[in-house]
Amino acid sequence: MKVAFLGLGHMGLPMAVNLVRAGHEVLGFDVVPAALEAARTEGIPTAESTQACAAGAEVVLTMFPSGRHLLDAYRGGLLEAAPADSLFLDCSTINVDEAREAAELAVAAGHRAADAPVSGGVVGAQAGTLTFMVGASAPEFDAVLPLLEVMGKRVVHCGGNGAGQAAKICNNMLLGISMIGAAEAFVLGEKLGLGHQALFDVISTASGQCWAVTTNCPVPGPVPASPANRDYQPGFAGALMAKDLGLALNALQGTGVAAELGPLAAQIYQRFAEEGGAGRDFSGIITQIRDHSRSAL
Ligand code: NAD
Fold first, then answer.
1. How far apart are CA 188 and CA 222, in angstroms?
2. Which of 56, 12, 10, 7 is nearest to 30 (CA)?
């Protein structure tokens, strides 16, 4: 397929590389010259402008920092630049409302649209093992599936436009809450004299079992590959968790859900990001809980 790939950052560049390796015809563009340079170094041809990038595309794939970037690009000429009936595939993580608005703009301009945010991080993007959560009608889902299967190992059709973002936001809200819970449990265990391994052996096979403990364990030792073993190098950075919980908060407020833990988790990760955790793995929240805990009574 002929793919215009806009947004060649941490995630976009390795995703574009995998598309090229699979034989797709990719033309890249980014507003940052260094990103264009890096793309060319990786063998991805680049365009001089948004318009030139989209001009011959069948699929316009975007991987932007936020919904604002996406809507500005859609309103700023990207939709007009692509041939009629192009498929606009957005893989950024953005607000559900923004995803729906972007899809409406694309359709109104004579195109098709799908949202497909990812989980799996830069490592997953490089290895082609991302999980895609897709919001699209059935024909659009079928059309983007061959591309997504190149960049990911799991593709879930969640519903119509915006449903991919909705699934991503719900999942990451639960992830943020469960990591805070896991970290609090390990700090409480420390205070009560429990060894990390003993508590892990119990939780990982008991009813508290969750991904935050069994895969991304916030203490070093029990899970050798977890970021806690490398001083909380990400992994999934605190800034991104704070961002995703902000999106969840917007969705909670917009829908009127009587959630208490989601907003609290958003506040906790916002503080974590502001107090030095932005570039650390989100499991590093445990260090903040420890630091803020009183010494033994
Ligand atoms: P990034 O900031 O590294 O990359 C985004 C790129 O988009 C930048 O290079 C920026 O210059 C470019 N860009 C912005 N506006 C543009 C425009 N109009 N035209 C062309 N390029 C433009 O961000 P990232 O880490 O690659 O994340 C991208 C998206 O994926 C975000 O929405 C993020 O929340 C999501 N995500 C990231 C991760 C991760 O681990 N990094 C994991 C899952 C999801």
1. 17
2. 7
> Per-residue pLDDT tens for 157-169?
999 999 999 999 9
Distance of CA 23 to the CA centre of its chain: 25
Which residue, by CA, sits nearest to atom 25 of ligand 1?
10
For a pLDDT cut of 70, what percent of the chain falls above it? 99
Which residue is closest in CA terms to ligand 1's atom 31?
A: 65
What amino acid is encoded at 207 in this protein?
Answer: S
Q: How far, in Å, is the centroid of ligand 1 from the Cα of 95? A: 14
Phi-psi label, residue 256: left if phi above 0, alpha if psi -120 to 50, beta otherwise? left
Give the residue extent of every domain in the chain: 2-160, 166-292
Q: Is the CB–ligand 1 distance for residue 200 below 6 Å?
A: no
The single residue of 2, 153, 168, 243 carrying the catalytic annotation is: 168
Question: Which of 290, 189, 168 minimizes the C-alpha distance to 236?
Answer: 168
221 alpha carbon – ligand 1 mean position (Å): 32
Q: What is the pLDDT of residue 139?
A: 98
Task: Give the list of residues 6+ apart from residue 85 with CB closer than 8 angstroms, or none.
Answer: 110, 111, 112
With a 6 Å cutoff on the Cβ, whether 12 touches ligand 1 is yes
Q: Would you state the pLDDT for residue 294? A: 86
Q: Top-level CATH class of 2-160?
A: alpha beta
Is residue 2 annotated as a catalytic residue, yes or no?
Answer: no
The third-level CATH classification (topology) of the domain covering 166-292 is N-(1-d-carboxylethyl)-l-norvaline Dehydrogenase; domain 2 (1.10.1040)
pLDDT digits 0-9 by tens, 213-253 = 999 999 999 999 999 999 999 889 999 999 999 999 999 99
Coil vs helix vs strand at 146: helix
